[in-house]
Amino acid sequence: xxxxxxxxxxxxxxxxxxxxxxxxxxxxxxxxxxxxxxxxxxxxxxxxxxxxxxxxxxxxxxxxxxxxxxxxxxxxxxxxxxxxxxxxxxxxxxxxxxxxxxxxxxxxxxxxxxxxxxxxxxxxxxxxxxxxxxxxxxxxxxxxxxxxxxxxxxxxxxxxxxxxxxxxxxxxxxxxxxxxxxxxxxxxxxxxxxxxxxxxxxxxxxxxxxxxxxxxxxxxxxxxxxxxxxxxxxxxxxxxxxxxxxxxxxxxxxxxxxxxxxxxxxxxxxxxxxxxxxxxxxxxxxxxxxxxxxxxxxxxxxxxxxxxxxxxxxxxxxxxxxxxxxxxxxxxxxxxxxxxxxxxxxxxxxxxxxxxxxxxxxxxxxxxxxxxxxxxxxxxxxxxxxxxxxxxxxxxxxxxxxxxxxxxxxxxxxxxxxxxxxxxxxxxxxxxxxxxxxxxxxxxxxxxxxxxxxxxxxxxxxxxxxxxxxxxxxxxxxxxxxxxxxxxxxxxxxxxxxxxxxxxxxxxxxxxxxxxxxxxxxxxxxxxxxxxxxxxxxxxxxxxxxxxxxxxxxxxxxxxxxxxxxxxxxxxxxxxxxxxxxxxxxxxxxxxxxxxxxxxxxxxxxxxxxxxxxxxxxxxxxxxxxxxxxxxxxxxxxxxxxxxxxxxxxxxxxxxxxxxxxxxxxxxxxxxxxxxxxxxxxxxxxxxxxxxxxxxxxxxxxxxxxxxxxxxxxxxxxxxxxxxxxxxxxxxxxxxxxxxxxxxxxxxxxxxxxxxxxxxxxxxxxxxxxxxxxxxxxxxxxxxxxxxxxxxxxxxxxxxxxxxxxxxxxxxxxxxxxxxxxxxxxxxxxxxxxxxxxxxxxxxxxxxxxxxxxxxxxxxxxxxxxxxxxxxxxxxxxxxxxxxxxxxxxxxxxxxxxxxxxxxxxxxxxxxxxxxxxxxxxxxxxxxxxxxxxxxxxxxxxxxxxxxxxxxxxxxxxxxxxxxxxxxxxxxxxxxxxxxxxxxxxxxxxxxxxxxxxxxxxxxxxxxxxxxxxxxxxxxxxxxxxxxxxxxxxxxxxxxxxxxxxxxxxxxxxxxxxxxxxxxxxxxxxxxxxxxxxxxxxxxxxxxxxxxxxxxxxxxxxxxxxxxxxxxxxxxxxxxxx
Length: 1122
Hints:
By secondary structure, the chain is mostly beta strands. Helix 1 runs antiparallel to helix 13 and helix 12 (1060-1071) runs antiparallel to helix 13.
């Protein structure tokens, strides 16, 4: 009978020893017979097994392949492997699922749709290494496919014959071919007509012929004979390869030999505008995530093979040949019948550049205008105008400078235009236009236009800033108090302090720190370049026969020609002199009755603009990603998180109508990403166009750019003493602001508050660098272990560690509660985690070593204020007895949605995928393979592939390579090799980084799969160190994965023990097993005998993980025969 009993200790030990020895022998045998990585003599036998209107089916038998689990295989036009892209396209048929290889051989079928075949070509079957491009290093085998003429006829129909050689083909000689004599023939079933296209002007009815065309013109293309069911095959994306791919309808510049069917490279076809002709029935079958990309250029091919496409013409990027309309197979399909073209008389778009070549106050502004691509034009008018005012140009005015350019050859010219300085306005933008001679400039006659970029330095040279000045006024004059002079300085620019003194005129050389003046003041805190101060000289220091002046000069210097800012003579009247010297005044005449003076006009408050610009953009600039700074200059200040600009001269605001413009002064500069990000917002101007709206413009690269629109209807409006204030007006970024000023960055703007008043300096606040990112110095991990001892670990924990299982160890000597202690394993340093010491300075770590860490000598370290180490030898089992094999696994993970948004937004970048697809919102890997031990819930599944993230013009360039799922008990990891340059500009090249972690506590094998559905993931310490920017613990996108395992995974094996005859049969079976030529068979014979010995000695139980936990019985039990 059968019973359950505890195994004797001796028996258990014997079996353990025997099992270990058996494992060693089998491993040794595997090592001896392991196949080569590449088979140089692989062979392919391919034969056509079926041929019909649906396509061609080829049976493939291949031998001599290397010892790999599976391969890529495809049916291709012979010798065209250079155009393949793995499973991505370039073939007539691709083998899916990937053919599996056993003992160096494989067998599979390939089915090529009729639309992907060409009877004029010779085909072959190609077999090559997975996750690679086929070349001499990766191709395992290849073999020709012989297709008979009859088979071609079955697939593509009978080849056409020459009617002239067969009188029987003349309908006149065979009345049976006359449809009128045979009611059984239906004229409606005849083959569609040959594809053809006709091109018309925008009205759709006037043939285009030789009509001259230019950029912006529209043409209508009408096609007929385009079979909506043709062109099956192709790349498979965005249209599945089993569907018709449609036809490209293109305006462009194509070489003389451009046809894909002739093997012409894509460089021979330069596209200006394109439509995608495709049956709507097919379009509706395209996966939803790809339909939008097609619908943006889609036109329908009707059932009768006709289509109509309207194209807006524009220059092609290159000009390898001639402009025209072209059609050819879409989606990588080759169809010579649809390769049609119609030439067009298209002229490239004329271009015009405007460059400032001189700028002085005396000679004015000289702009060199250079035109090109003017075709046959021999003469043109060229003028410098205020931007957008071409409607004001007449024969006698409306321009600042104009030239009639004659004798143009080759479509190009260059001419100088000079405008006097006094005709220019710094607040305006100017442009150069070139237009048709003997006409007025308008949309129909202007060839090209170009904005003139005038730098701040050039404007300063054209319209020099007013020189510093001092005005003086005698404020009081008495014998007792002396002479008091009010001195007011203006236009001092950025000067914040100056010395001001009353001296005898022309005696500045006598001024010292202790004398040489009648009165002196040190004026501090000058803002807006202006000050006012009183100077008082005692009466007895003055001489009526002398002249006096006030000078203002540079602080901490002596006054001279190089340091004096300005000077002003003091005008003292005779009456004032009489008062100072004490001369008795004449008896006054009786006063006349005074008249009531007019009430003085109220002082208008100073104008001011307060604006945070964009809080989110500001935080981004000084955050961990951009690591930048914000600088304020030019008279602007910052206070309370808002930038402040004082009102300056200029503008045409009308207080009566409430309309017009006002100009403010100052600049704010945002820098980041090591200089890649550099944005300056300066000299904001607000133009009120109605009671509800206004436009805020800024100066960028010398030009005025409309940066934001303001909603004045939502602002609070207050009028007081001649000034008007708009508070908290909502602001929206314009397209020009986004593209020109912010270099394509999009952001939300803060509300704007501004006062239109009198010229004034900005309120007090901080200037210079007002905010900057905190630079965190990144600690580098040493390339060699900084310590090899000091880690304390129990004997059992050490054994677990060396076997690759979870282990715990401690180390002391760290600072109390020290944080950021790094756990690093060597030989090649890999950061595993960071830990925190306790109050006694003891650090503890529990975890597993990476599954990819190779067996051998290694060192574990704790690195902090002190370093501790542990040398050990990893002897992980190469394969657990009964471990589950994983094949065909899938992984879906988007990394982090906000990061993808950042890449495509602010970073102006994207990603490049290799052997990975993107199915919003996830990156998708397929074909993962590896192993999984369901008893310990450990394993490693490798997917391969790579994702390369780029942005900020190349400053960010990070690649995640070779995706893996590592399962380690209750925790799982997403593992990558990480290389490139991270978001924060750091170089990285780390292998086997556990980038993200997730919980595995509830994961079980069900119905032959370990499935993970929307499992939350978070960034690990190692991931944070390698990828940069985000902190460890940052929430990442959820993970979904399916790991198929063999059907017996997780199922307890039967407890029945084979009898002696079964054991003998098993041994015989092992002995008879087929092994490769030249491989020794003795390990298998000995292994078989050991199996028999184990069976005879008391029974064998080879099983999978049992349900012991469910029964609550954790004792070690064996099913034995009694």
